[in-house]
Structures are given as C-alpha cells and as structure tokens.
Design a protein that fits this description.
The protein is built from 6 helices and 12 strands. It is of the alpha/beta class. Strand 8 (197-201) and strand 9 form a beta hairpin. The longest helix is centred in the first third of the chain and has 18 residues, at 77-94. The relative contact order is 0.12. GO terms for molecular function: ornithine decarboxylase activity. Keywords: Decarboxylase, Lyase, Pyridoxal phosphate. Belongs to the Orn/Lys/Arg decarboxylase class-II family. InterPro entries: Ala_racemase/Decarboxylase_C, De-COase2_N, Orn/DAP/Arg_de-COase, Orn_de-COase, PLP-binding_barrel.
C-alpha cells in the first residue's frame, strides 16, 4: 500500500495498521506526455518526516516507489529518481524500517525504451549494488501499445474546395470516421495520434498509392462536437470516400480504457468490417 502524505499515513493506521507500506517519492520528467509529479510523490525532505511518522505510528514501511510520468521522453530522469530513492531507503533503514523494495514505475515509450533500460541498469548498479533489494517496474503501456489496431469506416467526406477561404490558405480535405475523441481516440487530445493507413479503398484491401496521389486531410470523429478532431494533418490517398476504411496502429496504450460510454465501440467497428469481408 502506497502513501505520500501524513493524512494517508494516519488513515492507514486507523484502517489497515498491518499493511506493508511503500513511500511514493517525487520524480518528474517535464517532457513526459502525462506528468504525475504535481499530483503524487513526497519530496526528499518530506519523505524523511513521513518515515519518522510511520515509525512512531508503528507502521511498517518496506520500500519506495516513483513514476517519472507516462510517455517519458528523457531516460536520464530515471538516474536522478533512482539516486534519490537510495537516499530515502538509507533514511528508512536508519530509522529501523526493513526497506527491501524499489518500484521504478512506468512511463516507458517505444522510442526511448532501449536508452532508458541502459540508464536504469547503470543507475541500479551504481546506487544499489550489493543491497538485498527487490526491484519492480510497471511497463504496461510499453507492452500493450502495439497490441491493438483500431479500424474505422469513413462515413462522410468534405472536399477542400467546399471549405470557406482561410487567411492561411486552402484548408485540407475532411474525412469523418465512425469513431473519435469520445471513443478510442480520447487520449489524443493530449498527445500525437498515430498516422492512419488505408485498410480498404474502392473494394481493395491495403491498396498501393503513389506519393503523387496523396492528399492532406483533417480527420473528424462522428459527433457534432468541434473538439472531436482526431488529426488535423493526415496524409492519405486523395480519392478516399464513404465506405472506405482506414486503420490506426499502436493504439493499445491509451484507447479502450479511456473510452466514454457515449462512443461507438471499437468492437462494433470491427464487426462491420467483418461484414464487409464476408460480402461475396
């Protein structure tokens, strides 16, 4: 059970006094897609106070944890967080806590994972060499990112010539899909969306398209909400139209779990696709 403040400790003392506790420590990668440091984590000076309070309350603290932020882009931040964790572990040991676990959290991305792994290994060897510690990581997003591909049908199209004139020049074509921000794409309000590819166009699956035949599109979801914009600049074949299908890879990290109840379900989309496949 984790804690990072005095109120939480006192609540644990009242309700779960036999719990084995983990102190959540502050760690922050400002470049992470989702920062968690403003909400969770005790700073080093506060960590010492919390360890003392836990001891005075008769609570058992067995380790520390941190999370640099989801979608971390700076692997070096792990070295800083692991170094700070060692200081907190030492403080806990001096107070009589049996510190034996370090949870380095998650935040791993496919782009920086290899570099992060090297940084973490070196930092653990430097700061925890020879210590009888258990180390835990939470690489959930990294593992599942490429486990899901979302396929969407095109339900409407609007050509650029139909759009009003803009001081910035002509607007892109527009495609409207049967899934959007209120469904599988909610997380892409806060991070870049994967670029779509063509699944089926004019009855042909995975069609080959010359670069000269590509056009730029704004990709919209199916709702009446102007926020429901998946991508503002997607490059796809210029002749896509209603009934064609596109797909988005690497959607496993933050998609189904963020779906709102009002959205079209991805399973519904895939069911429709299966119907298309079965049409003679």
């Amino acid at each position: 059970m984790t804690f990072d403040n005095e109120a939480e400790l006192r609540k644990i003392k009242q309700l779960f006094p036999r719990s084995q506790l983990i102190l959540r420590c502050f760690a922050s990668d400002p470049s992470a897609t989702y920062s968690l440091s403003s909400k969770f984590g005790a700073h080093p000076e506060e960590s010492l106070k919390l360890l003392k309070l836990a001891k005075s309350l008769g609570l058992e603290v067995i380790g520390v944890s941190f999370h640099v932020g989801s979608g971390s882009k700076d692997p070096k931040i792990f070295e800083v967080a692991i170094k700070d964790s060692r200081r907190v572990v030492d403080a806990g040991l001096q107070l009589g806590h049996e510190m034996r676990l370090v949870d380095i959290g998650g935040g791993f991305s496919t782009e920086t994972f290899d570099m992060a792994a090297v940084t973490i290994k070196d930092a653990l060897n430097t700061h925890f060499r020879g210590m009888p510690m258990d180390f835990v990581a939470e690489p959930g997003r990294y593992f599942v990112a490429n486990a899901l591909t979302v396929a969407c049908g095109i339900i409407a199209r609007r050509d650029s010539r139909e759009n009003p004139a803009s001081p910035q020049g002509p607007m892109n074509h527009m495609l409207y899909l049967n899934d959007g921000i209120y469904g599988s794409f909610l997380t892409y309000l806060f991070e870049p969306c994967p670029q779509p590819k063509v699944l089926r166009a004019s009855g042909e699956f995975y069609p080959r398209t010359c670069s000269s035949d590509l056009a730029n599109y704004i990709i919209w979801g199916p709702t009446c909400d102007g926020i429901d914009c998946i991508l503002k600049d997607a490059e796809l074949p210029g002749d896509l139209t209603c009934g064609d299908w596109v797909y988005f890879s690497n959607m496993g990290g933050m998609s189904l779990q963020t779906e709102m109840e009002t959205s079209p379900c991805v399973c519904y989309n895939l069911a429709n696709l299966l119907d298309c496949l079965l049409v003679p």
